Amino acid sequence: MYWLIAVMTLGIAGLIITGVIMEMQPAKVSRPWFKPTIGINLVVFVAAQAALIFMGFNEVMAATEAATEGGGEISIGLGLGIIGVGIPTALSTIGAGIAVGPIGAASLAVLAEKPEIFGRTLIYLGLAEGIAIYGLVMSILLLDKI
């Protein structure tokens, strides 16, 4: 299973190196081998990740009872419950990020014309960021139920 992690690491390193090359030399990026290289790196990364998840799932399901005696016992149901507790925070954070982007851009555009309405733009940004706080509060309330 370690070879899959190595393949995933090499795929990510290839994407990072390609991005750095494209950033440093944008005029020379018109080489025809860049796009297939990025595509191959992405395919290798996704395939290795899927294989790692499949092999890891089989390894966890085949674990004996003695392997889980190190600490508290976590069942599959408890693990899924903990993942379910994190979902509201994750989705609300994504929603807040989607909301803050256009609101922030519009705020900057308006502030260039009328700097006196800075307070109103902060209120709108705060309302958009409040979405993430609502998700965090829901996760905390759900964590109490586990």
From TrEMBL:
InterPro entries per record: ATP_synth_F0_csu, ATPase_proteolipid_c-like_dom, F/V-ATP_Csub_sf
Stored Gene3D superfamilies: lithium bound rotor ring of v- atpase
Cleavable signal peptide: none
Claim: Glycosyltransferase is one of the keywords in the record: no
Residue stretches making up the V-ATPase proteolipid subunit C-like domain: 83-142
CDD domains, A to Z: ATP-synt_Vo_Ao_c (cd18120)
Topology in membrane: Multi-pass membrane protein
GO biological process terms held by the UniProt record: proton motive force-driven ATP synthesis
Family annotation (Pfam families): ATP-synt_C (PF00137)
This protein's GO CC annotations: proton-transporting ATP synthase complex; proton-transporting two-sector ATPase complex, proton-transporting domain
Localisation per UniProt entry: Membrane
GO MF annotation terms: proton transmembrane transporter activity
Keywords: Membrane, Transmembrane, Transmembrane helix
Transmembrane regions listed in the UniProt entry: 6-24, 36-57, 77-110, 122-143
Family: Belongs to the ATPase C chain family.
Protein name: ATP synthase F(0) sector subunit c
Organism: Candidatus Thiodiazotropha taylori
Lineage: Bacteria, Pseudomonadati, Pseudomonadota, Gammaproteobacteria, Chromatiales
